[in-house]
């Protein structure tokens, strides 16, 4: 395909254009591959949408659309076929001020070639954002006496990847990591750190692989440039300062660090 002109971006920011493009691709393309939704795939979609309605720090127009999907899923009268979901996603049903942007609108997830980065990059970023939002949400929920599931976001990612992620060997790898230690996560802060450390494990495994964009080599993240206080040395071995990493993640993936450039 033709390449869009390159957009400048700041790698210390999180772009709403990437997050909305992640939603568009996941719902219209990946979920869209399932003409019929039932059983596990329907449960995974329900979990994903409920989590997004609760935690996605989106524009009102997008949140309204997600609420429309939630209502469609809750309507037990309709059989769950993608054709029906598609009408909600395209908003041919006339929801007020609701839309899912066209997508393919990458900013920090641009690749130097169309086969690199883009959607998988944005899916990681989306779930890092959600993991931080879950911890923020909990602070107000606790005051209301609401019980918060510390695994809501990680389970959301696990069931999404298992049922819908189109890179099937990625899904197999991720499920193995999840089976190994996801259930040991006890707090929302641990969930943020679990996702970060597993993402770094994936980065380590994929460094130098054919799927790597040569313009964006995989490295352990955040780099010392982004977060000097996250790094230390012990007898010349690199060590992470987990408290500093957690603080950094909560800042980097917060609403205050969202950039609204390039939106459709
Ligand atoms: P990505 O790894 O996609 O990261 C996106 C952005 O997140 C980075 O630019 C950076 O800003 C930030 N970031 C990087 N590391 C971290 C971290 N540790 N914590 C928080 N933020 C971070 N590809 C394969 O070839 N094989 C696989 O098995 C595979 N498994 C995957 C499993 C999942 C669940 C996902 C979502 C993707 C998987 N992929 C796999 C794709 C791969 O991980 C990358 O997404 C893809 O190669 C694009 O890489 P990228 O350079 O854009 O950076």
Question: In words, what does this structure look like?
Answer:
By secondary structure, this protein is mainly alpha-helical. It contains nine helices and four strands, in the order βααααααααββαβ. The strands form two sheets. A two-stranded parallel sheet has the order 1-4. Strands 2-3 form a two-stranded antiparallel sheet. A hairpin with a 2-residue loop joins strand 2 and strand 3. Helix 1 (16-30) crosses helix 5 (119-143) and helix 5 (119-143) runs antiparallel to helix 8. The longest helix is centred in the middle third of the chain and has 25 residues, at 119-143. The chain is globular, with a radius of gyration of 19 Å. The two termini are 20 Å apart. The model has no long low-confidence stretch (mean pLDDT 95). Residues 109, 117, 120-121, 123-125, 128, 161, 167, 169-170, 173-174, 196, 199-200, 202-203, 206, 209, 211, 213, 216, 221 line the site of flavin-adenine dinucleotide.
| N-end to C-end Cα span | 20 Å
Helix content: 40-55%
Mean pLDDT across all residues, rounded? 95
Oligomer: single chain
Run of helices and strands: EHHHHHHHHEEHE
Percent of sequence in beta strands: under 5%
| Attached small molecules | flavin-adenine dinucleotide
Query: Given the C-alpha coordinates, what overall shape results?
Result: globular
| Topology, number of strands | 4
Number of helices: 9
Major beta sheet, specifics? 2 strands, parallel
Summing up helix and strand content along with how strands pair, one would put the structural category as mainly alpha
Radius of gyration: 19 Å
Which regions have little confidence, pLDDT < 50, spanning 5+ residues? none
Instruction: Please state how the strands of the largest beta sheet are arranged side by side.
Output: 1-4
């Amino acid at each position: 395909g033709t390449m869009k002109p390159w957009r400048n971006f700041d790698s210390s920011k999180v772009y709403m254009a990437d997050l909305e493009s992640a939603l568009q691709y996941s719902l219209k393309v990946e979920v869209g591959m399932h003409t019929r939704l039932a059983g596990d795939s329907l449960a995974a979609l329900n979990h994903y949408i409920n989590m997004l309605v609760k935690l996605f720090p989106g524009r009102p127009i997008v949140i309204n659309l997600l609420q429309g999907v939630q209502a469609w899923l809750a309507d037990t009268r309709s059989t769950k076929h993608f054709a029906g979901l598609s009408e909600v996603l395209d908003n041919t049903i006339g929801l007020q001020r609701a839309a899912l942007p066209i997508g393919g609108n990458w900013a920090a997830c641009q690749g130097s070639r169309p086969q690199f980065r883009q959607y998988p990059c944005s899916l990681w970023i989306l779930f890092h954002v959600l993991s931080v939002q879950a911890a923020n949400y909990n602070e107000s929920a606790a005051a209301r006496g609401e019980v918060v599931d510390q695994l809501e976001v990680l389970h959301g990612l696990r069931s999404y990847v298992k049922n819908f992620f189109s890179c099937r060997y990625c899904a197999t790898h991720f499920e193995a990591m999840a089976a190994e230690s996801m259930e040991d996560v006890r707090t929302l802060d641990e969930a943020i750190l679990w996702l970060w450390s597993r993402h770094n494990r994936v980065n380590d495994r994929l460094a130098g692989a054919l799927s790597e964009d040569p313009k964006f080599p995989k490295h352990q993240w955040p780099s010392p440039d982004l977060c000097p206080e996250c790094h230390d040395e012990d007898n010349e071995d690199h060590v992470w300062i987990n408290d500093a990493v957690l603080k950094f993640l909560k800042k980097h993936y917060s609403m205050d660090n969202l950039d609204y450039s390039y939106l459709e």
